[in-house]
Specification:
Structural class: mainly alpha
Helix content: over 70%
Oligomer: single chain
Strand content: under 5%
Shape: globular
Low-confidence stretches: none
Radius of gyration: 15 Å
Length: about 120
């Protein structure tokens, strides 16, 4: 795949992902406090899961978006949507873990939350 084609696919998949998130505001992903950022993940999961085949459709489009993004990550077009892609990928990872039988204890979850807070502080 050449770069212009990768950019076209990336922008198409970004548009589809944005459509799936219609009505959900993820502006706090970049500008918010660590607790606000962290709160976006379960809220975003709920938004996706309320849609028909939401998880399946989300995982597919974000996987395709991520592949195209990786091919043209240094382009101006990719730079413009980089923050959206990072949120979409975080949401995808959370949705993939949701069905996992590898449940975390409340203490493990709290430790991860503290680590994330330190990272964003």
């Amino acid at each position: 795949m050449d770069i212009p084609q990768a950019i076209a696919v990336m922008l198409e998949k970004h548009g589809i992902a944005c459509d799936l998130m219609h009505g959900f505001n993820w502006d706090k992903w970049i500008a918010g406090k660590p607790t606000e950022r962290l709160a976006l993940i379960p809220a975003g999961q709920e938004h996706i899961l309320q849609q028909e085949d939401g998880k399946k459709r989300w995982v597919q489009v974000v996987t395709e978006l991520s592949r195209a993004f990786a091919l043209c990550a240094s382009s101006d077009e990719a730079a413009e949507i980089r923050d959206d892609v990072s949120f979409f990928q975080a949401l995808q990872a959370a949705l993939n873990k949701q069905g996992s039988t590898n449940r975390k204890t409340p203490e493990q979850i709290e430790a991860v939350a503290e680590e994330i807070n330190r990272f964003f502080a």
